[in-house]
Amino acid sequence: MSHDRPPSGDADPAAATPPVVRSWWRRHGAGVVLWTLVAVVAASVVAAIVFAPKREEAVVETARKPVPVRTMTARADGFTDLLELPGRIEPRMAATLAAEKPGRIVAVEADRGDRVKAGQVLVRLDREAWDARLRMAEVELREAVRDLARIEELRKTGAVSQSDFDAAAARRDRADASLADAKAQVRQCEVVSPLDGEVTDKLVEAGEHATEGRAVIRVVDIASVKLVFDLPERAAADVVPGRQLTFTTEGVDASVRTAAVSFVSAEADPRSNTFRVEAQVPNPGGALRAGTIARVRVERPVAPGHIAVPLAAVVPRRGEHVVFVAAGGRAVRRIVTLDRIAGGQAILSGGVAAGEAVVVDGHRGLADGVELQVVDGSPAAAGAGS
User: Fold this and answer.
1) Using CA atoms, how far apart are residues 308 and 360, in angstroms rounded to an integer?
2) Are 334 and 323 in contact (CB under 8 A)?
3) 329/66 Cα distance (integer angstroms)
4) What string of DSSP letters covers 30-63?
5) 69-80+303-374 has which fold?
6) Do the strands 81-98 and 215-232 form a parallel or antiparallel pair, or are they unpaired?
7) Whether the Cβ atoms of residue 356 and residue 74 lie closer than 8 Å to each other
8) 188 neighbors 101 (Cβ within 8 angstroms)
9) According to CATH, where is 2.40.30.170 located in the chain?
């Protein structure tokens, strides 16, 4: 038997490859070669980028321009700490009068707007029953006085004992007390004005029945009125009895008036933590009406050495108050002590000296040492005015 196998020295490599491998290579061989070439090229590019020598980039430094700002010269005088507080005008005296006894109202002697005098009867209640009691008390007193006089004459002769005399005297005293009570009951049937003033409210009409304690009429005295306002705690030590204050009222008459403090409460209102203040105001012509709204001006003293700057110049930063001062063409950061705020001003007790140029505009983005350009139009001084 003959075999067609070639000699071993001339063997075909493809023939030695298994049929499955040859089949796969015919289908996928071209793709493998292509992707291998792509990978080799990509690796070459990456290596060129990574290992290529870096070029030195030119760094151009741009000089920072000066920051334009406006300044104001700090001053330690020429300013006022002025509080403007809301107030109201109240009558010096006012009385809402009530019926002291129950009964039918027989007459109302005054109407709203009437001027009345102290002691004038304004309302009358039915007093017929009380007049009868008064007459009985008068009769009883006359009899008791007569009996006591007769017994006293008999006692001189010894015909009457001491105990009989003492009983007659006690009867006279009881009759006298009953008469005084009857007179008081009659007086209570009349509602009398306790002051000179004007009737502002009439609460009953004739024919109505008044119960004991029912309000029937109101009288106010505005010949002298009082200015009433609430003082904040920070200014409590600045207002004392006897001090003169100025105020204005709303309406047609807006002139400045004066008032003398007569009362400052020793206890703060727990709701507002303010102190009630009253000041007397003469009002002979009655121009000021009760209930008028007022604006009270309270000037507070400022300790020497304090500096006033615009409130906008103070920058709060991390729990501190900062002001920038222009010195040598640069910004100087100062931590200041804020004593109080007065209107649009900050009153400083430390951190800035009089005569220094405080930056009041353009300071929001400043930092210590930044070069400044002070522009025209800067205000000349701080602290003038209120």
Assistant:
1) 12
2) yes
3) 9
4) HHHHHHHHHHHHHHHHHHHHHHSPPPPPPP-PPP
5) 2.40.420
6) antiparallel
7) yes
8) yes
9) 83-90+222-300
User: 303 vs 96, 294, 323, 340, 349, CA distance in Å?
Assistant: 47, 29, 21, 12, 9
Percent of the chain with pLDDT over 70: 78
- Terminal CA-CA length for the chain: 134
CB 211 within 8 A of CB 102: yes
The structure tokens listed for 197 are 């003033």
Both tokens of residue 340?
């109080």
Strand segments, DSSP code E, in the chain are 67-73, 81-98, 103-108, 115-116, 121-125, 190-192, 197-202, 209-210, 215-232, 244-249, 257-264, 274-282, 293-300, 307-310, 315-317, 320-327, 330-342, 345-350, 357-361, 372-374
The residue type of 107 is A
| Predicted confidence (pLDDT) per residue in 83-116, tens digit | 889 999 999 889 999 999 899 999 999 999 999 9
Verdict on whether the full-model pTM lies above 0.70: no
Domain range 95-210, CATH class: mainly beta
Q: How many residues does the chain have?
A: 386
Q: Which fold has domain 83-90+222-300?
A: Elongation Factor Tu (Ef-tu); domain 3 (2.40.30)
In this prediction, residue 323 has a pLDDT band, given cuts at 50, 70 and 90, of: confident
Residues of the chain with CATH 2.40.420.20: 69-80+303-374
Mean per-residue pLDDT of the chain: 82
